[in-house]
Specification:
By secondary structure, the protein is mainly β. Helix content is 12%, strand content 49%. The protein contains 1 helix and 6 strands. The radius of gyration is 13 Å and the shape is elongated.
Length: 99
Amino acid sequence: MTRRELIRLLLEKYGQEARVKEGTAYALIRPIGLKNDKAPMEYLYTGTPDQKPVAGDVIATAEGSYVTARSGVETVAGEELYVWAVLHGEGETALCTEE
């Protein structure tokens, strides 16, 4: 089993289905830091590389919708293992954005 296959298996088992662009990926979405009145809540997305969100893309799950602030792909030895993204709730303004 390759690293990519192992990560996919874990995300499919412990993650949730996420609608990204025109497709579906499996992902874990978890809060970053603590919510306060001065800053919007941000979330870290770790998902299968089937769909690669970019800044501004909406990610929809059964728990809610999020907007991508920035993202990237983690690769090892040329193999795409997973996609990461910093998200904020739809309708909120992000502090961390791509430039």
